[in-house]
Amino acid sequence: MLVLATDTVQQLSNSSSTDNNFSSTITQEANVDEGDIVKYDGEFIYIAAKYYNNQVSDNDFAASTTPRTSVRVMQRGNDGDIIERPNITVNENASNIDNLYLGGDTLAVISNISHYNYDVINATPYGNVLASYQKFNLSVVDVQDPGNASIRQSYNIDGYVIDSRRVGDTLYIVSRFTPVIAKVNYPHNESERIANYHKIQEQNIDDLLPKYTDANGEEQNLVNVEDCYLPQNATRKDDHGDLVTLTAIDMSNTNDINLVCVNTEIIGIYATPASVYLHATDHQYNADETKHTSMIHKFSIDGQTVEYVASGALNGKFGWQSPNCVLANRESI
Known about the structure:
This protein is mainly β. The chain has 2 domains: 158 residues, no CATH class; 145 residues, no CATH class. Helices cover 12% and strands 41% of the residues. The protein has 5 helices and 19 strands. Strands 5-6-7-8-11-12 form a 6-stranded antiparallel beta sheet, with no helix packed on it. The longest helix is centred in the middle third of the chain and has 12 residues.
């Protein structure tokens, strides 16, 4: 039998209901909202369309006549009946909705853009790895009048979403981006390895950083070089293939974006109202033994302000299941 401590029961109660006595998303931490495919404000229910086979080809995606990122809107009537309201089409280029966030009159929708380009798959031996678009969409919807909802802002952002949270009016998105350089293939000998090295050195570093495009089609760098943290003792021979960004977006003023960037690997996050923790495990294999080292990176958050605090390493590994549930925070730490 599972027995919950009194404070745990109270926390679950606080996070899953309000004074209006209706259910909402059950969260790990009080006052830290988590994404869901269904959101409810006591009157209107927002339901994300889900496509579990969300990896589709460009051709199949173009031939589809049904928007894959629509949000169904249902209204609860005074007598308990359910009234259908117009669906909200979020982004025609996205493949599948990952999460919804509802705060006041604002609905934030995070969708992935993950259809495949078969021309890339057929052109290179490693095309099946590189052919999926590294992009996701964030759309912020004005639902003050849910029957006439409108897109307030929409961003297509380079990378894959690892996870996200909402504290107050600020949405925090942790995403991963892997730079790809054209015509750099796996080397089979020393001369090919040297040729790849020179191709990499010739690249403009701005071309290797993630970018975002707004609803007007204006493209900007998501991060600047000075925004990215490297391991303290890193040398030119050390690297991680991923750039991980922690992005803070004010849902009430979506033109204001702040972030930090870390050159590391991340598999999960944990958040409190004041901090975000990123974590992963490094697996080192050799003939004699396998060594697992787990890393934790802490960032303080305060609205749009995101600051790096510290990193730590532990012997051992985090489990791969439920990566959002492997950490907890004591108030005094």
